[in-house]
Amino acid sequence: MYKLAGTVSGDVGLHEFDFTVTGDLRRNEYIKIWNELDGWILGRVMSIVDVTEKTATAEIIGYKDERGFLMQPQSTFTHGTKVFKADQTFIIETLGLKSGGIYLGMLEGRNIQVHLKKEELIQKHCSILAKTGSGKSYTAGVLIEELLERNIPLLIIDPHGEYLTLKYENKSEEERRQMEKYGITPKGYASKVVIYTPSNFSINPAADKLFRIDGINLSVNELYDLFPLTDAQLGILYQSINEIKSEKEFYTVEEIIKKVSESRSSAKWRIVHFLERTRETGILSDSPTRIEELVEVNKASIIDMKGADPKLQQLIVYRICKEVFEGRKMGKIPPFMLVIEEAHNFCPEKGFEKAVSSNILRTIASEGRKFGLGLLVISQRPARVDKNVISQCNTQIILRVTNPNDIRALSRGLEFMSSEIEEEIKRIPQGVALLSSTSIEMPIMVDIRVRRSEHGGRAVEMEPVEKKKEVRIKDMRNTSEEKEGKRSMIARLLG
Ligand SMILES: Nc1ncnc2c1ncn2[C@@H]1O[C@H](COP(=O)(O)OP(=O)(O)OP(=O)(O)O)[C@@H](O)[C@H]1O
Ligand SMILES: [Mg+2]
Known about the structure:
- By secondary structure, the protein is α/β, with parallel strands linked by helices.
- The chain has helices at 88-95, 118-124, 136-149, 173-182, 220-226, 231-247, 253-261, 268-280, 291-294, 310-329, 358-367, 387-390, 404-413, 419-427, 469-494; strands at residues 4-12, 16-21, 30-35, 39-50, 55-64, 70-71, 82-85, 102-107, 113-116, 126-129, 154-158, 193-197, 209-210, 213-214, 284-285, 300-304, 336-340, 373-379, 395-398, 432-437, 444-448.
- The protein folds into three domains: 4-95, Thrombin, subunit H; 102-211 and 289-463, Rossmann fold; 220-284 and 468-494, no CATH class.
- It has 15 helices and 21 strands.
- The chain has a twelve-stranded mixed sheet with strand order 9-8-21-20-19-10-18-17-11-16-12-13.
- A hairpin with a 3-residue loop joins strand 1 (4-12) and strand 2 (16-21).
- Helix 6 crosses helix 7 (253-261) and helix 7 runs antiparallel to helix 8.
- It starts with a strand and ends with a helix.
- The structure holds adenosine-5'-triphosphate (ATP) and magnesium ion.
- The site of adenosine-5'-triphosphate (ATP) has 16 residues, from helix 3.
- Magnesium ion is lined by residues 136-137.
């Protein structure tokens, strides 16, 4: 027997209707109503309007026709029609929820698992947008765990060093208690996760390896992308690099600095300053990190950028994206998922700060799918992320958003947004997300499952630092080389 929820009364339209509530009912609850013409219709309680009278408003979701398409009824319900609570099977069939695949959580308030197709994520991109502290990184962690379980390579751009905890199993007692409900067990992914630092091991002792970019034969274009140069400065750079090229096949940034310093124009100092700053970061190397190492089956490479200044972070993202996009095109690396945390810093919307990584990220968003390069973009400021990137994401996970500009940006960029959904996302509780995906008939609320591995927000015991001693010594040598470089620079400037 179906459980009675109420009877149709008051305003009745084709998309919404009011009904008088019988017994207990909560917002977002799924209901079903019989319609002579189309059979059972699925609906969802949007609001309980009047607490004393117990009147509720429900939206009509629709019914599946014989071809499997979600259809809307063509006639309105008559007053007095009974409203029932919807049963699991009816909800699953009508919403088109699949079993198997990427397990995200439970349909809010129901014991129904929500899965996304793996292909949906990798080939069609995904975004996680929400205000700060609402659970974006936590949710991203859930997706990463699921992809790791399926051996999909991941490359994670991690500005705050939040993702290294994927290595350890979730120790939170509170969350462990909830694991049974979600049907999962604790698990750490230490054997698959490798942390790279663009700094060094003293700044980032938790890192496993150094991340370096190719400092050999930097072209004028590459440098121009990094520094805002005037025409006069650009001229000097061109001339200097051309001269070096005529003298030798391979050259370092050191040699560019030397050549630029020889120029008679005072415009050279700004170039020297920028080049010096880049060199001092230690990121340039003649043995750069290879993309074949970063993107490997059964591996999640985390570029932990803690300690790197914002411009350098953008440069790193730019270089990585350019190389992996080319690498994917040529089949040098397997299909994979690129995770970009704090995406507003790397592909900002027009009118906000510029980033050297913007264009390549836009290209990956629009063309990556053709080459099996999936994007997962995460941001707490939806209004500040390039809308060309957001609009290319076919799966949208939206947690709580309250900033009016951000809500407006979401409404402009996403087809499924409506004024009701806008209201909804202002009130989403922590841990719950609005999910819209091409494989689900309509946006649904998902209670995100608890993490199997540790979430980065919490303190975690680090690995012992001993094993990195050897490399540290090398690092110190780098530093003294830098010092030497700086000394000779000063000497050059003075002399
Ligand atoms: N699904 C969930 N289940 C349990 N706890 C959660 C869930 N989602 C988030 N949390 C908790 O909420 C807190 C904030 O989550 P998280 O760090 O993911 O926020 P965020 O949106 O990434 O914030 P920021 O913008 O600061 O990066 C975390 O400490 C986490 O434990
Ligand atoms: Mg976060």
